[in-house]
Amino acid sequence: MRTETDSVSATVTVLKHQLNVDSFVREPAKLLQMNEVGVCNIMTQRPIVFDAYKENRSTGNFIIVDRVSSATVGAGMIDFPLRRADNVHWQALDVDKAARSALKNQKPAVLWLTGLSGSGKSTIANALEALLHTCGKHTYLLDGDNVRHGLNRDLGFTAVDRVENIRRVAEVAKLMADAGLIVICSFISPFRDERRMARELMGEGEFIEIFVDTPLDECARRDPKGLYKKAFAGNIANFTGVSSPYEAPENPELHLKTMGQEPARLALQIEEFLRSRMEEK
Questions:
Q1: Low-confidence ranges of the chain (pLDDT < 50)
Q2: Given this model, what pLDDT does residue 257 score?
Q3: Contact criterion met (CB below 8 Å) for 119 and 212
Q4: Which of 5, 34, 91, 267 has its CA 20 to 30 A from that of 46?
Q5: 120 is in an annotated binding site
Q6: Which CATH class is domain 97-280?
Q7: pTM (whole model) above 0.85
Q8: Is 70 a catalytic residue?
Q9: Domain boundaries, the chain
Q10: Which of 101, 189, 243, 244 is catalytic?
Q11: Is residue 122 a known part of a binding site?
Q12: How would you list the strands of the sheet with 139-143, edge to edge?
């Protein structure tokens, strides 16, 4: 998000409604197409300086720029800050991340497994947590399907909902890392920008992106939940790899090619990578 005075990473968290430019009637909407206008909430990674557009057009306007292509994808006017920006303050805590980590005798980390549905992420993540547990490590596994039964049960699978799904999970992972845990996240997380957002939330060196690389044909052959069969038949909309894109990591910390590899061996490879990384610091 770029304004007259700032440039900051930002996420559109809620699209409240679309505005019909002919009648000015408010209409429900999940997304905005080219040249459409809507009212939304935007969360910035840090506070910015601005005025309401009605008071100052120069400091009250903004544009949204794609971080990968640098293309301008939207423009808008700032109406008002959310009330919580003024009423919520950071509470100082006596016990910090370093103290919690020292008590557990480990360094916190967020191991983020990304890949297509059926690539083996959950199986590898489960084997990895079992392995770390036997090594005496304090862990927690956040699985894509499991969080949709609770925390994210209100979200669907549109591009907007997928972004919000990852935003929430990243915030939870950040809290768990702050507790000194090794957090294993197993999510398709198809968009590079959202994985980048998750990385930026974490401390220096804490985020470890792991690309579970399985060809689409193999994922479809496995089809453990019968989802690809439904997607190819047109019965599931916005299915990653079929009717919705998957943006593969460009520079992951660890690239796992699963063909011909056992999940337990791949989990051991992650554990060895994590151990060597922790020993370096």
A1: none
A2: 96
A3: yes
A4: 34
A5: yes
A6: alpha beta
A7: no
A8: no
A9: 10-87, 97-280
A10: 189
A11: yes
A12: 139-143, 182-186, 109-114, 207-213, 254-257
